[in-house]
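Side project, low priority. Logging it here so it doesn't get lost.
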Amino acid sequence: MHLLIIDDNEELLYALQQLLRDAQYHVDVATTLADGKECIDEKKYDLILLDWMLPDGSGVDLLIRLRKNNISTPILLFSSKKEVEDKVEALDGGADDYLEKPFSNIELLARIRALLRRECAQKQTIIQLGDLTIDFSSRSVHINNTPIKLSAKEFELLELLVLNANTVLTRYQISEHLSRDFDHLSASNIVDAHIKNLRKKLDGDNLIQTIRGVGYMIAR
């Protein structure tokens, strides 16, 4: 996997290079938007780690430009900005994930793995899990060729779990994904209710596993 880091903090760049290379990723680095854009023009990356504030402009501006040019490479934007509006701006601009500085190495690596898994899965239009067939292009679900009617939120939940298969997602992470409302995020019964309804429609508890005290996952 080839990753590009665009950040002007030399100390952080060095630490990230070592961390990601130890994790067996190929890593290129750029310290400005211009250098980052040049790297992207010359090479196809599996993931871009992009800082918000750079010497020659905003990482969000580059993000928006890339999306307008139909470059769909997953982008993890990181910043010391903590305001809800900033996170919304990043996600609306086309970021696949947002991570506040300072962040832990464990969390960063987990988010990178999740984004890379999701990217690989999305290249498959159809995913088969036992008797369950999910078609992401038509947003349809079948069990043994019988169509299963899911609400929009139920499909989003199933999609999230499948694209992060073998990863335990906390109730907070699921709530964040489903609500997109950073002011009213809750790890409450709303997630549990969606899981319960989804399990009923998918015929039981075998597919979605409960990790007690943590959250939920689908094993593949």
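Brief comment: The radius of gyration is 18 Å.
Revisit when time allows.
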